Amino acid sequence: xxxxxxxxxxxxxxxxxxxxxxxxxxxxxxxxxxxxxxxxxxxxxxxxxxxxxxxxxxxxxxxxxxxxxxxxxxxxxxxxxxxxxxxxxxxxxxxxxxxxxxxxxxxxxxxxxxxxxxxxxxxxxxxxxxxxxxxxxxxxxxxxxxxxxxxxxxxxxxxxxxxxxxxxxxxxxxxxxxxxxxxxxxxxxxxxxxxxxxxxxxxxxxxxxxxxxxxxxxxxxxxxxxxxxxxxxxxxxxxxxxxxxxxxxxxxxxxxxxxxxxxxxxxx
Length: 268
Hints:
The chain is of the alpha/beta class. The chain is 42% helix and 14% strand. The chain folds into two domains: 8-196 and 232-260, 3-Layer(aba) Sandwich (Rossmann fold); 200-230, no CATH class. The chain has eight helices and seven strands, in the order E-H-E-H-E-H-E-H-E-H-E-H-H-H-E. Helix 4 (111-139) links the parallel strand 4 (86-89) and strand 5. The longest helix is centred in the middle third of the chain and has 29 residues, at 111-139.
């Protein structure tokens, strides 16, 4: 039920930390992986790493906000492997101008950065889903998985742009799940995972002090996390593989929290 061997997966943002972790787990499961990333050096590094594991891997420099780029890469991937079974939308991120300091209010936010964060996360999910989803529609099967966020469950201070962008992704996930199942095939499934709090390059400075201790923000997060710890980025991989597999054959349109209980706990 959980077998993924010889499936073909496209991972956007595959040169990054999150996309790279998911790509590694798919290679370990015997999946053929196409890494897409806007930075060529990240693509080359990731492909070399995955090939050293024995994986069947290709990589392409790609801007997920360019439909032309995506279609060109789709052609290269289907020329090589003939199909696309899995799409992981891991491209995304935040920008300093759309993130507030503790002293700032929403009126200090840079509107252009707010727009760019929403564009990158929302359209950076919509465009790949349409381009590669079209292949799945013609095949009559496939699985699309997008990275959502805890910032969509309730308001989290300081990240207005990221919050609105990821919330848009949630409704698009549900909408596309409905569209694919009703108009093309019930074997095309569209889901998202909502990571809890993981310490990475983007949030390290707000969660970890220079002396290695937890910041006040970290303490607030952990107080709301029943498991009492931050997640390990590898703990997302099992959820991704489950949603890609036949074990999840009747699951579509869900946003699955992987959060140590954060989304379920009132804090009281």
